[in-house]
Amino acid sequence: MTKRKTLQSPERIYSKFGTMVIFTLLLPITLSFAQTPSSANKQGVIKNDNDSMKQMLDYSGPGENHAILNQLAGKWNFMDPKRPYIKGTLSRKPIYDGRFYTVEITGGKLPLPVGNGKMKDGNYQNLQIEGYDNPKAKFVTTSINNHIGSDIEMQFGSFDKEKNTFTYEWETELIPGLKKTNRRVLRIIDMQHYIEEYFELQDGHQVKIRELDYTRSSE
């Protein structure tokens, strides 16, 4: 027996045809909206990543401010002119292509804390890392030592070209609750001499607590 085909009304044919036409017209637009943001975002991320990486590399290299620090590279002898027994040596070396400088200081003998209330006699030792933070536009020095303080000092400073002087400031808390605001002024006299002055903020006034004279070593 042959199956008879069912005839569809003109209205149903028109309805299906119209739906197909609308779907066909909307499909490219839908795909465009679905794909374009993803593609744009991907390209944007790549572009931004490349720009950010280039900027980070540009800001990471040494510049003219690092070269100012290089004036102080080398070996030095220092002494407190008012207390001649306070004396020692300093060695400043560039590392990582001049991006930073290590500073090793050795002073005289004094009692050193070794823990559990015990002390021993030994030479004062101080280790510093100097550099220039390009984004912050600040000179930076970190400092640790084997005598007073278990903290890592973080000093931020600026340089006055006219006075040929660095000025660093930082805060210490050597015992709980006893905070002190400090200032260190380093003035370059010439390539063979410089002076460091240390100040503490006391009752709203900067009081000088130490001065050290540095002379370049002939070694």
At a glance:
Helices cover 26% and strands 52% of the residues.
Number of DSSP helical runs:
2
Order of strands across the biggest sheet? 1-2-3-4-5-6-7-8-9-10
Which spans of ≥5 residues are poorly predicted at pLDDT below 50? 2-7, 13-42
**Biggest sheet record:** 10 strands, antiparallel, barrel
- How much strand? over 45%
> What average pLDDT do the residues reach?
85
Query: Could you tell me the number of beta strands?
Result: 10
Q: Helix amount, in percent? A: 25-40%
Class computed from helices, strands and strand pairing: alpha+beta
Distance N to C terminus? 117 Å
**What is the overall silhouette?**
globular
Work out the radius of gyration: 35 Å
Descriptive notes:
This protein is of the alpha+beta class and 219 residues long. Helix content is 26%, strand content 52%. It is built from two helices and ten strands. It has helices at 10-60, 64-70, and strands spanning 74-80, 83-95, 100-115, 118-133, 138-145, 153-160, 165-175, 178-190, 193-202, 205-216. It is globular, with a radius of gyration of 35 Å.
